[in-house]
Model the fold of this input.
Amino acid sequence: MEGNDFNFKSHIIFGVCFYVILSTFIDVEISYYGIIGVMIGSLIPDMDHPKSKINNKILPFQNKIVMMIVYVALGCYLILYSRGDKYTLVILGFILLFTGLSKHRTFTHSLVGIGLFYMLLWNIGIQYNVKELTNAVVFGIILHVIADFLTVKGIQLFYPASKKNFKFIMTVSTGGIGELVVVVAIILLTINIVAGSPMNLEKLLSFLGNT
Ligand SMILES: [Zn+2]
Done:
């Protein structure tokens, strides 16, 4: 990955920590489905980078041309051969097509991209009765985009309408010590919140007790 990006492990830690923090504020149980879903979601937006964790597994060669050919071909195939009656596959087709045609940190990190991911996962959740898992994946995707919004490079939130890069007033430097400090701070914040909330501590202990 580029020097401007968080490591995939940092994205997973952000996702899981904020999932645990959120469970303090809204009354959701911490579950395996939730944690696995958030972990998967944390990796999804970087499917637009040939050397990302997801593409290491999917692509035969990790370069931009191969990535574009594979994503565009698969996307077109799904759109054309689903014939409009398999709504979920058509949405997936468009996501793959747009990902193949767009640059890193544009479509998959934009409001349009998040909207399409949401539609896809909402449908999958209902079709296969796995809403807990798919909601957690959406949460992981949003957390990933928020984390990238905090970096120097920022994100193209309104892509394709605008190619303006958006970033927070204060940014975090990625890679090396800067990223490590942020990751450790978030872990400590999570521990602090969990320990400070007897309800959440109870939830976490009952989750660990069931493992
Ligand atoms: Zn990213």
About this structure: The chain has nine helices and no strands. The mean pLDDT is 90. The radius of gyration is 18 Å.
